Amino acid sequence: TSIATVDQNGTIGALKAGVVNITATQLGDDFYQTASGQYTLTINKANQTGFSAGNDKTGVTFSSYIQVATGGLSNGAISYSANSDKVNVNENGKVDIGLNAGTVIITATRAGDERYHPVSDNYTLTVLNLGAPSNLRFTKKSNNSVILNWDTATGADSYQVHYAQESFVNIEPENYGVLTSYTMLETNVTTLTIENLTGAGYYFIITAVRQNMATHRTSNQVYFSTTPSDFNQRLKIPVELNPSVDNNKKSFTLYIKKGQYQFYNGINTNVFYADSNSDNTSNNQSLMPTLRMHENDNVQITYHNKLGETTTMHGHGMHLPANQDGGPHSGIENNTTWTATYTVKQKASTNWYHPHLSGKTGEHVYKGLAGMIIVDDAESDALDLPKRYGIDDIPLIVQNRKFNANKQLVYSPTRMEIMQGFKGDTHIINSVIKPFLEVKAKRIRFRILNGSNASLYNFGLIDTSNKDKSFQQIASDQAFLEKPVTLTRVLLSPAERAEIVVDFSGNSGKTFILKDFETGAELMQIIVGSSETSNAVPGTLTTLEKHSPINATTRNFVLSGSMGGGGGNGSARFTINGKSFDMSRIDTTMTLNQTEVWTITNNMRIVHNFHIHATHFRVIERGGSASNVADNEKGYKDTVRVDPNSSVKFVVKMIDYTNNSNNPYMYHCHILEHEDNGMMGTFIVE
Ligand SMILES: [Cu+2]
User: Fold this and answer.
1) How far is residue 120's CA from residue 48's CA, in Å, rounded to a whole number?
2) How far is the CA of 114 from the centre of ligand 1 (A)?
3) Residues 568 and 668 both lie in one domain
4) How many angstroms is it from 147 CA to the middle of ligand 1?
5) How far is the CA of 572 from the centre of ligand 1 (A)?
6) Distance 30 CA to ligand 1 centre (A)
7) Residue 644 C-alpha to ligand 1 middle, in angstroms?
8) pLDDT at 52
């Protein structure tokens, strides 16, 4: 039969499952007849071994997946099934996932045959949701070409890169094609160079696609302007200098030196700068590092002067003992070292440090010696504010320069430039000309320092339609404001600081311009990328001490000056109460903890400002009226603008240290050409 064979020895050869009768026959001989006997043999099917559906598969990110089962012993075909009717599996093991994310069990079965039972095995397939391509960003390759980069999206079959001269914001992704060119890319591609852009500017957006647009997710939008005058250099963030910490003291070490820095690509400009390296290798640096310290920290800052000339280093806004303050009496001669040692005794604030050498402050700051000092305290630690330095807490040292034909900085103000203050026509932020800054679509904090020699900056943000974007000012010179103040402009005279928070939530793909409304100059482009959550600015930021002006000592300071007689440079002179600065004269003696009310009167037709070392004050009147004091001027100040032919009245108290005539404190106009030409006085605290 077809079921089994049997040979003459009785050995059965099973061919397939079934029942067979085996007949044994003994042939007869001379004495016996032939005899037969039978038995029934049942042959069962065997189990198949070695059949595998394959390993479990996780993280599948495309719309179909093939996994072929292997092994088994029968001649039967392999078939597949899924435990979900949303998923189809064909006879080749190809799973059509479609748009579904989740887990499905795929069962593979090899059919049985005449000899074997069927066999099944399964594997688990986990399919990810379609993600959005994120962090779309670009690098300018040339004025009309751009290199896009993005982070991969999970679950996409492909990407579509769209670009158009109009924004995609109000267009459904299905309709992007109406206004766009697009390029289809495989999912392992995360960069694309697009060239020959002939329009004025382009929006770019990337769509991750599954099942040929059956589902899709889009990236943030970015905008690239082909206009050559635009913002080509990424904003630099001054490094935060790491202190060495020993015996509960934070020690910073800085070497002040000459170097070369490229404001313009490929052109070295001679600058002054400081960093923590003792050698003279200028790694294209300008300015000085950010120093970060906390209330109650014991701090030691060691300055090595390798400049080739004497300088000083003053902690502007810092409450310091007079002999640690770095004023004109604390000269650091070339190749010598000076150390400022103090305990931080003030509220969280954005301060700065810069030279303060008599007659040379303007030149030394102008050539690059300026850096931030950020003070933290328990309040700032606890407040829910953006505080990732350089990411959502951005220092902005705003200055301006005048480059000669060789792109060098020549500081030789004419008599008129001394009178008006030395103002450059090229604005820089953190030493970058026309920078761009990429931020997430969230709240971003900017610590703005007007680090210029002489310019007023009236900062505002505008969108591409020239519409103001409001922001909240959260801090003035030396502390948080008690409550945030919503503004569209913040006016800072030299040395003033403002911390602002701008809410870019919902602004993905948009660009904004930080503009100076004093000159109309566009200072920086802000490119808003993908969304990130951030909480609203707290309604209460701090509590400020209110000095009572009752029983206060009152003083008057009159700011004046003249162009001087005759011609030539440098003959403009400035005075406070009729006297030009004299290092050896003590102009004012204050009493520790005695509240004073100072009235600063500007009797000139040009603007001045007024700065007091080692303390803060609170402005109570402007132009003779309390109602002229803006809400954002009501916090702790150490520098205040004094408008032409006007006055400012403030309450001030020296609360930290006494000093003597060997190391007087300074008050002065912070227009550095005015300061360097006489508008400075000395005071001691007894
Ligand atoms: Cu001045």
Assistant:
1) 10
2) 106
3) yes
4) 47
5) 12
6) 148
7) 10
8) 95
Distance 153 CA to ligand 1 centre (A): 56
Q: Tell me, what DSSP letter sits at residue 384?
A: -
Distance 600 CA to ligand 1 centre (A): 12
Residues 143, 120 share a domain = no
What domain count does the chain have?
Answer: 4
Whole-number Å distance, alpha carbon 268 to ligand 1 midpoint, is 32
Q: Which stretches in the chain have pLDDT values below 50?
A: 229, 567-570
Question: In angstroms, what is the span from residue 608 Cα to ligand 1's centroid?
Answer: 4
Residue 63 in domain:
yes
Cα of 671 from ligand 1 centre, angstroms: 5
Q: 3-state class of 639 per DSSP?
A: strand
605 and 677 share one domain: yes
**Single-letter code of the amino acid located at 518:** E
Ligand 1 centroid to Cα of residue 537, in Å, is: 35
Closest among 162, 169, 96 to 133, alpha carbons compared:
162
Tell me, yes or no, whether 557 and 654 share the same domain.
yes
CA of 674 relative to ligand 1 center, distance in Å: 5
What CATH number did the domain enclosing 197 receive? 2.60.40.10
44 Cα–ligand 1 center, Å: 109
CATH of the domain at 633: 2.60.40.420
Could you tell me which residues come within 8 angstroms of residue 415 by beta carbon, excluding any fewer than 6 positions away? 563, 564, 567, 568, 569, 570, 571, 572
Query: What pLDDT does 212 receive?
Result: 60
Q: Strands 134-142 and 471-476, how do they pair? A: unpaired
Q: Give the model confidence (pLDDT) of 600-639 as tens digits.
A: 999 999 999 999 999 999 999 999 999 999 999 999 999 9
Q: How far is the CA of 629 from the centre of ligand 1 (A)?
A: 20
Which pLDDT score is estimated for 537?
Answer: 97
Q: Which residues have C-beta within 8 Å of that of residue 175, sequence separation ≥ 6? A: none
Distance 91 CA to ligand 1 centre (A): 86
Going from the Cα of 606 to the center of ligand 1, the distance in angstroms, rounded, reads: 8
CA of 518 to the centre of ligand 1 (A): 17
Examine the domain organization and report whether 619 and 642 are in the same domain.
yes
Residue 400 domain-assigned (yes or no): no
d(CA 18, CA 40): 10
Which residues, at least 6 apart from 500, have a Cβ–Cβ distance to it below 8 Å? 445, 446, 448, 471, 472, 473, 474, 487, 490
Q: Which of 70, 99, 127 is at the close of a domain?
A: 127
* Token pair 């020993």 in the structure block, residue: 246
Give yes or no for a contact between 611 and 667, defined as CB atoms under 8 angstroms apart.
yes
Q: What does the pLDDT read at residue 621?
A: 97
> 646: domain range?
553-685
Within-domain flag for 209: yes
- Specify whether 121 is located in the same domain as 138: no
In a domain, 31, yes or no: yes
